[in-house]
DNA sequence: AGTTTATGTCAGTCATATTGACTTGTTTCT
DNA sequence: AGAAACAAGTCAATATGACTGACATAAACT
């Protein structure tokens, strides 16, 4: 669907990558020349990207942690706490505080699992879904604007690039996570 | 050189962007469909990207704040504190702590400005330059590996994409900042 | 019955950021 | 020369988001 999985363009050895300042890594593992520009672009781009959402979030007294929780709960209705923890890569205690706030302020609701009653399955309330959508919207606008300025094939390549930047071990999990539209209740695979 | 500035591919209205799930924003400003996959890829990719450096940094008892300071000082030898602050977008107090540590531990040294003696121009020491280089190296490896898996033209498009993601007002500043190789002493423009 | 799992909670800590106010030099402007 | 602006540093107080380790409870699995 989103074809982020394609791999290994033939890529004649020593050919491609003409425009990059950085060549292949030599024996000592330290590349001869370093892509300073790409690094700095990543830094500035990501910072401005997250700033859009941050602005909206502060109106509600929330931070980035709330955003992430809200996002993944909205995207995975009925997700259990454990799975959310493994997606976010944080500890129970860190999640606890922000999740409690989101529940107390009626952005997220918890329902006991119908099969396993130990679980507190998480769902966004209408209010929570609305905020999640608005957060997506402000960030989408920046994304759309950026892609609107460059070649049409860019979005495919950027997707492939981002996917390849993820740790190889977690790529299959991420692929499963993002390549689904909506499933009301999430199966409990290790995220 | 790195041609991130090119703009406005002709892009016949309504044509391009075939593979994106997201269409243009309608009147209410909220896009009809939202690029969840791209958002999540950005999150996971950036997280893993920064994790490489974090690992190295903790060996020295440093955090991400130290990384950023070290990086921009190494890249802009002789930079003054004010310019560093405006690049990083943080306050004097936040910088103060990490900068002091970097100076005390001999990763960065300060020299009074030869013309304006109010300034404390910043330089990395050999030790500091070495760490900065190693940090670049670990992150470069991930970057190279990612680009090695996808089409050769990807790096150009990714650069363009990242550049367009930056706030329009700061793009010229960023372009100046990244498009220079090495100038021993930095002119003091508003970053 | 005993173990594992899902969740929550307590207490303490750390890193990074914030704001506002104030000081000390130094330079620049009138 | 004197005032204003600027570069840098510092103080105190605060907030956020993360961490660790330990412990508690209920439910489920074997």
Give your account of this protein's structure:
- The structure is a homodimer of 191-residue chains.
- By secondary structure, chain A is mostly helical.
- The first copy, chain A, is 52% helix and 5% strand.
- Chain A has helices at residues 36-59, 64-75, 81-88, 92-104, 126-148, 154-165, 171-178, and strands at residues 108-112, 120-124.
- Chain A has a two-stranded antiparallel ribbon.
- In chain A, a hairpin with a 7-residue loop joins strand 1 and strand 2.
- The two termini of chain A are 20 Å apart.
- At the A-B interface, helix 1, helix 2, helix 5, helix 6 and helix 7 of A face helix 1, helix 2, helix 5, helix 6 and helix 7 of B.
- Chain A binds a DNA duplex (30 and 30 nucleotides) through helix 4.
Major sheet characteristics of chain A: 2 strands, antiparallel
Overall pLDDT score of chain A: 84
The CATH topology of chain A is: Arc Repressor Mutant, subunit A
Which two chains share the most extensive interface? A-B, 80 and 80 residues
Q: Give the structural class of chain A.
A: mainly alpha
Spans where pLDDT lies below 50 across 5 or more residues of chain A: 6-25, 182-190
Number of helices of chain A: 7
Organism (chains A, B): Roseibium litorale
Pfam family, one (chains A, B): MarR_2
Keywords (chains A, B): DNA-binding, Transcription, Transcription regulation
InterPro entries (chains A, B): HTH_MarR-typ, MarR/SlyA-like, Tscrpt_reg_MarR-type_CS, WH-like_DNA-bd_sf, WH_DNA-bd_sf
């Amino acid at each position: 669907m989103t074809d982020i999985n394609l791999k290994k363009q033939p890529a004649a050895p020593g050919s491609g990558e003409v425009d990059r300042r950085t060549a292949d890594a030599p024996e000592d593992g330290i590349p001869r020349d370093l892509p300073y520009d790409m690094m700095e672009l990543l830094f500035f781009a990501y910072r401005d990207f997250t700033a859009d959402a941050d602005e909206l979030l502060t109106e509600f007294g929330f931070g980035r942690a709330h955003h992430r929780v809200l996002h993944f709960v909205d995207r995975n209705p009925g997700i259990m706490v454990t799975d959310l923890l493994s997606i976010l890569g944080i500890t129970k205690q860190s999640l606890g505080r922000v999740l409690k706030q989101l529940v107390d302020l009626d952005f997220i609701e918890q329902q006991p699992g119908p099969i396993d009653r130990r679980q507190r399955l998480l769902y966004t309330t209408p209010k929570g879904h609305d905020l999640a959508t608005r957060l997506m919207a402000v960030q989408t606008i920046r994304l759309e604007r950026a892609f609107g300025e460059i070649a049409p094939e860019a979005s495919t390549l950027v997707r492939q690039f981002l996917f390849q930047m993820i740790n190889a071990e977690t790529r299959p999990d991420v692929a499963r996570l993002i390549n689904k539209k909506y499933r009301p209740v999430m199966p409990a695979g290790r995220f």
